[in-house]
Amino acid sequence: MENNPMSAESERATVLLVDDVPANLSLLSNILRDDYRIQLATSGAKALELVAAGAPDLILLDVMMPDMDGYEVCKRLKSDPKTRDIPVLFVTAQNQVEDEELGLTLGAMDYIHKPISPPIIKARVRNHIALKLQTDALKRLSLFDGLTNIPNRRHFDNTLDNEMHRAIRTQYPLSLLMIDVDYFKPFNDCYGHGTGDACLIQIAQAMQAVMNRPMDLLARYGGEEFVTLLPGTNLEGACKVAETLRQTVASLKIPHALSPISEHVTISIGVACRAQSDPKSTSYLLRRADQALYQAKHTGRNQIRHIE
After folding, report:
1. Catalytic residues
2. For the chain, where are the E strands, in sequence order?
3. Which tens digits make up the pLDDT trace of 93-122?
């Protein structure tokens, strides 16, 4: 099988080189371009613009630049939650302890001193890229459910906080679905926990497949409970999404011999939508969705209930 050069290129880590001297950029680029995708910036402002357009995996940043020096660029990167985790390596001719202390205090990972040594540049970039990729992998693991591979409760809680602030600021609706697999304990007792796990995986994958908008979030809330966050969606729209999810799970036709309501696995869903007069808290929206789910479970299950 032939290697796909486009695929190989897309898998490369991206290194942003920032220096106001074109000759320095050319030197660094020649050293690193065989192993990484390279971005170039001749000023601090251009560097911040490139980072905003798409975060690189590593930044090699010259300290001494006109208008905005490397320290100021680093300070701005580290003050923004979206860019603070990008590792920064300062490249400098300065060798004073005080200068290095300042850069490290601002959040830089390391210093590379001029004149540049190609083997040292390659080794340090390789080590910091490897560390960054490991950190990214651990971060992803901390935000995704190990069984179903969809976002976990921690991911959901973080997203809910952000979307609640956005809804309050923009006055757009925010809807929440609480989802429970009906009679899941009897299912486990009947078929075993291995089959129970497979059931949850199948349900999660099926529901994820019908989530149409990138901003919508489906997460595993715990046990056999799932939750869906629908920014910019009113109560009517949220109920339509809930019905689609209910029908999707029913269509899987997963046998459930101990369910008193169906021959197959079903779900119950509680729906709540934030009103402009509601308290500015996530707990209130969660409580209303949970109350709606309680109604759905205690009036027959395999259905949707909502709180006005």
Report:
1. 224
2. 14-18, 37-41, 58-62, 88-92, 110-113, 174-181, 217-222, 225-231, 267-273, 304-307
3. 877 677 778 888 888 888 888 888 999 999
Rounded CA gap, 161 and 154, in Å? 11
Long-range contact pairs involving 33-41 (C-beta distance under 8 Å, separation at least 24)? 35/122, 35/126, 36/12, 36/125, 36/129, 37/9, 37/12, 37/13, 38/14, 39/14, 39/15, 40/16, 41/16, 41/17
* Nearest of 24, 88, 23, 104 to residue 51 by alpha carbon: 88
Is residue 12 exposed (0-12), middle (13-18) or buried (19+ Cβ within 10 Å)?
A: middle
CATH number corresponding to 5-141: 3.40.50.2300
Pairwise CA distance, residues 277 & 85, whole Å: 37
Q: Where are the domains of the chain?
A: 5-141, 153-307
Give residue-wise pLDDT tens across range 171-189: 999 999 999 999 999 999 9
Work out the widest C-alpha separation in the chain, in whole angstroms.
77
CATH tag, 153-307: 3.30.70.270
